[in-house]
Structures are given as structure tokens and as C-alpha cells.
Design a protein that fits this description.
CATH architecture of chain B: Orthogonal Bundle
Order of helices and strands of chain B: HHHHH
Distance between the termini of chain B: 66 Å
Number of helices of chain A: 8
Structural class of chain B: mainly alpha
Structural class of chain A: mainly alpha
Helix content of chain B: over 70%
CATH superfamily of the largest domain in chain A: RNA polymerase sigma factor, region 2, helix turn helix motif
Strand content of chain B: under 5%
Distance between the termini of chain A: 74 Å
Number of helices of chain B: 5
Largest sheet of chain B: none
CATH architecture of the largest domain in chain A: Orthogonal Bundle
Radius of gyration of chain B: 23 Å
Oligomer: heterodimer
Largest interface: A-B, 52 and 40 residues
Shape of chain B: elongated
Amino acid sequence: MPRPRITLSVANPHRLPSTIAREDEHLLVAAAKRGDTAAFEELVNRYERKIFRLTMNITRNREDAEDAMQDAFLKSYSHLKDFDGNSRFYTWLVRIAANEALMRLRKRRPNQVSLDEPVAGEEDLMPREIEDWGPKPDQRFAQTEMRQILNGVIDKLEPDFRTVFVLRDIEELSTEETAKALGISIPAVKSRLLRARLKLRERLNRYFRGSAPN
Amino acid sequence: MNCDAVIREISSYIDGELDVTMKQELEFHLTSCKECTMVIDQTKMTVELFCNEELVELPPDVRSRLHQTLLRKIKEKAV
């Protein structure tokens, strides 16, 4: 069997042209499975930004996020033969990357991550702070300032809630895909997503309240 | 449906997962509850703000290390 051609470029800003249409991800995956590293590179180019955003959002640590991303792509390459094509490649990759990120988060904060625990308890969910934000409160902040605010509020979210929020609302996985990726039940995903959204709203309230026009 | 029940169903409502009866009950509550309406609108906006965050380019040093590492490891595997 001929040795696979190594063509993976080093940080090439001019991405390898692919003869395969963008929407035909399964063709890229099939080519990569046959040892076409250019096809694999196209998959890396396509998803590296999203995977880094994901690992950053879970770990909240750049070094860990970078390591998790590298290992996720390497594992996906090594285990391509195990990818059965029943889900999107991206969903499969997200699952690997989320687990790599969580492993690092558990090492760094062993007492704060308990994704295998059952659904959170029936604590009082009623928001304590409800104030008018006025129309389009986000437009009162510059883009950089807004990004800092969003980073700040998601940073303070408990890892269990943050991870579910990141997969569902930022990476737009379905509830079922999120449950499968994290190895938790669908009710657990729903419960944590609700709590994450309410907590984030409450924290954003501190920035947006009082800025409503009189 | 009271305020407590509305808050518990916010996520399902936002995601369009409530059945017709529950949705109607929730929306009927909203017609007379300003606080729940604000919480729902603001929770929707919270999700949208995070969803709409622009995907930024990888920092060049991070991208360089990623591709160098992948290249090296894939070469090692091929040898």
C-alpha cells in the first residue's frame, strides 16, 4: 500500500485549495480516511477557529485550550476509521474536543466539574434582579467592550453549566448531541441549560440595567 | 401558570419545544406579567448575544503550533 502523501502545510495563510465542494464534508472525510492528508488539512482549516473557541470557552485558559485543540485534531485523525458517518464529522469532532477540554479543566479545578452527576436540584430559579434594559442595550457598548462583558460573565459561570451552554447555544449542538457528547442525560442538559441562561441573564443585567432611556 | 412555572419553562419556550397548550398558558401569563416578559426577552437576547459573537481568527502563533504539531505527528505515523 503506498504511503500517504504528507502535504500538511505549516500555518499557511493561503489555504490548500480543495477540489471538493464545501458542503460535501463527507467526501473530505472519506478522502482523509484513505490517507489524503490534504483533505484532513481542509477539515482542520475549516474547523480550527470553532474548535479553539470551544476549548477556550470550556477551559477559560489559553494553554489548556491550545493543548485540547491539538489533541482533539490528532485524535480525530488517529480514529478516523472509527467515525461511522452516522453524525456530522463536526459533531464528532466537537465531542472529542469537549472531552479533551473537560479533562484539562478537571485537572485544573478538580472540585468544580461534575458532569457525571444527576440533574441539579430544584432550587429557586426566580430571578432576583429584573429591570428594564431599554431597547437594544448591547448597542450602547463598543464591540470590544461587549466582548469583554460577555467573556467576563461566561467566565464566572460554573463549569457544568458553562459547558452545556457552550455546546448548545454557541456551537449549536442539539440537546441530544450535547447529552451524547458529555455523557449525561437529556433532562440534565435541559436543566443545566436553563440555569446557565438564567445566570447569564442575571449577570448581564448588571451591565444593561439603568441604561434604558428615560 | 404562575411566575415560577414560567421561569422553569423559559428554555423550552425560547427553543420552541413547548406543546401548544403549555405555550398558550405561558403566553396568557405574559399578557399580565411585565416581569416574566422582561425575563423572557432578556434571556432570548442573552442567548443571541453569545450566538452572534463573531468567530475570530486563530492567533497566528496558536495556528502555527497547531499545524506544526499535526504535521510532525502525522509524519511520525506515516513512517
